[in-house]
UniProtKB/TrEMBL annotation:
Residues 52-62 have a biased composition (Basic and acidic residues). This is Uncharacterized protein. It comes from the Bacteria. Residues 42-51 have a biased composition (Low complexity). Residues 34-62 are annotated as: Disordered.
Length: 62
């Protein structure tokens, strides 16, 4: 084998894998779903936001 054949084959294999695993699904509209959030963590964050907004409104009223 010549010195450029092996790197060229690796490049072609990498491009083919990238197309098959990344580009083709994106073009078809099928992407990996986002990880699911835990409802308890999201509820806790929403509760903290409500408390902070209520405190902000209370301080503005004073």
């Amino acid at each position: 084998m010549s010195g450029w054949l092996l790197p060229a084959l690796v490049l072609v294999a990498a491009l083919a894998a990238t197309y098959r695993c990344c580009l083709r699904p994106m073009r078809g509209g099928v992407c990996h779903p986002a990880p699911a959030r835990t409802p308890t963590a999201d509820d806790g964050l929403q509760r903290q936001l409500r408390q902070a907004r209520a405190e902000r409104d209370r301080l503005r009223a004073q």
